[in-house]
Amino acid sequence: MKILHVVTGFPYDYSGGITNYVRALVDAQIKLGFDVSVLAGIGGNEYDYVYQMKSTKINPFSLKLEVEDTIYEQDVLTLLKKFDLIHFHMVIDFPSNLLLMISKEIKKYVISLHDYFLICPRIFMSDYQNKICHLIDVKKCNNCCGVLDRNDFLRKISNKIGVALPRIINNTPEIRLGKIKKFVENAKLIFPVSNKVCEIYNNIIPSNNYIVNHIGNITSNMPIPSKVKQDGKVIVGLLGTLSYIKGAEVLVNILSLLKKDNINNLEFHFYGRADKKWLDKLVSLGLIYKGTYTQNDLINVVSSIDIGFVSPIWEDNAPQVVMEFLNLGTPVIGSRRGGITDFIEHMVNGYLFEPTDSFEFNEMIAWLKNITLDDVSKLADGIHKLKTPEQHAREIVQYYGTIKD
Length: 405
Description:
CATH topology of the largest domain: Rossmann fold
Domain Glycosyltransferase subfamily 4-like N-terminal: 16-118
Pfam family, one: Glycos_transf_1
Radius of gyration: 22 Å
Shape: globular
Helix content: 25-40%
Strand content: 15-25%
Domain Glycosyl transferase family: 227-370
GO molecular function: glycosyltransferase activity
CATH superfamily of the largest domain: Glycogen Phosphorylase B
Number of helices: 14
Order of helices and strands: EHEEHEHEHHHEHEHEHEHEHEEHHH
Largest sheet: 6 strands, parallel
Protein name: Glycosyltransferase
Number of strands: 12
């Protein structure tokens, strides 16, 4: 079977959640003996099994919807038709017209739903005012992605000064969604990466072909590091990107309350990148910024963290940082958003709270104020390693085998 994985928008070796996952899956499928190729964005290292294509008219992350590039569309379709099975992961370079053509001309394809790009042009289900959407309301989308928002220059200025553009409603998002529905509906199988992703997609595009399938993560093959003790304090660690939708304001509220009550049994450490305005504020409240890190640093970084902290306010699909913490023996404090609840069980391998529920938030603060290393150790005892990329690859191949021509 000749398999093509599609992960456009970025070079194949880009260090990002979806590209990291696809590389691990492809490596595992090659080891299983399959003839595997990849369609990715232009750039990065060259691989003999990777095709690189990029539209000259379509900019990833633009709200300039319904752009057509007929040459690119035909080139992509010609390539897809050379394979027995197409597995789509990320299509941010694909215009909706191309997705509609794929639904009509490609007989055998599956889709992994890692993000919300197909149903939310802004991807994060966070609207033009930074308000979180928990389900898709296409009428709201028509307002959120209005006429002025589709002008890349105006949107860039708007984002820079922090002032939303005036609303001029149009039905372009609704037209786009109509084409994408055909693309999703005609897939042989659809793999949401968490139950919440499945719920959100199924609400707007109902189908019997959804199969929730948690991905594998390479940290499942890594040894659990010994913890570095730091003066008896509990080190709460954050990894990755810190922004408003990633829970920066939640963290500000937590650190403000802990500082007010002079709680000194905790330290919050952050490794990664953050919006400067949030980072400056958080550091002033006691956050210790440890700089950026790479995947090669991960074991050493996590060895200095007693309990992870992952508190997005958006419906984060299935954060791999949660998987990394758990696989490296570290319990996690997490918000009840997106796919986090698929992996964290409250007071078993971590602590769950709803960031907008004042009772749950205050309960979490009270728990934090009294937390000890023994409490963390008990939660660590409840952790079990998650799926490896190899286990996941075998599952995916088994699902491929159920597809009828």
